[in-house]
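Usage

Read records sequentially. Each one opens with the input sequence:
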Amino acid sequence: MKEMASGIEEIILTLFFGLVIAFALIVAWEWPVRASIIILLLGSVGLILALAQLVLDFKTLGVKGVSVARPTFDLAPIEAEGRWGSLEIWAWLIGLFAAIHVIGFPVALPLFVFLYCKTYGGGWLLSFTLSASTFGFLYGVFEQVLHVPWPEPLVGVRLF
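and closes with the structure output:
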């Protein structure tokens, strides 16, 4: 009987999250596109995942005494590689922050992706493809769809 109760609790929890997401989608549907695009996009994905989880919960409800294999996301703890491990990460982040202010966000982010990829063993084709994809995403989504006003860089000209 305890297994059945556990299955019903999982179904109720999944239904609760699915209803919260559905309510958020209904509310955001009336908003302007610029305000609701993130909620509609992520909410749609969340609703699909909640429905898939609900199907899995109903499938396991009738099965007694069988443990269901669920994915686990256990990762080994991150070990600092030597003395400068976390300082190196902070240096990259501070460098990105400085580059955004000096040369502007639309230039700094693809440049950061290219340099990071090349520094850590990426080939020329991969580095160029990732940085071009980053620039294309920035231009396509943030400039053409959302019309984000970029702050003026300290040095250089604005690309868009």
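Summary fields computed downstream for this record:
- The first helix runs from residue 2 to 29.
- The chain has two domains: 2-61, 97-160.
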